[in-house]
Amino acid sequence: MVITTESSDVELMCIFIGTPSPQVTWYKDGQELSNKGSQVTVALNNRCEAILKLSSVTPSVAGNYVCKGSSIAGNIEGNIRLTVEGNNF
Q: Percentage of the chain surpassing pLDDT 70?
């Protein structure tokens, strides 16, 4: 679980180990993310880091995130719950 405050920048990360490096797809609440946030995948040797960068978050981006990795070796997924707390000024 990741807890952050409104207007913060957040990075969600999944790490996969294996060869070949998987193709990574991010989902929020069951819907594939294509235009939300910045998605980066870094592969070095047999380690693959899938990072989803979200800027200036609002409560609307809170939810269940899933990163799914797939390659000829198989499929795997990681789950992250993101909670965004409002600013109390």
A: 93
- Nearest in space to 37 (alpha carbons), one of 15, 18, 13: 13
List of domains in the chain: 2-85 (2.60.40.10)
Would you list the DSSP string of the chain?
Answer: -EEEETT--EEEEEEEE-SSPPEEEEEETTEE-SSSSEEEEEEETTEEEEEEEE-S--GGG-EEEEEEEEETTEEEEEEEEEEEEPP--
Average of per-residue pLDDT values in the chain: 88
**Of 40 and 51, which is predicted with more confidence?**
51
Q: What is the pTM of this model?
A: 0.86
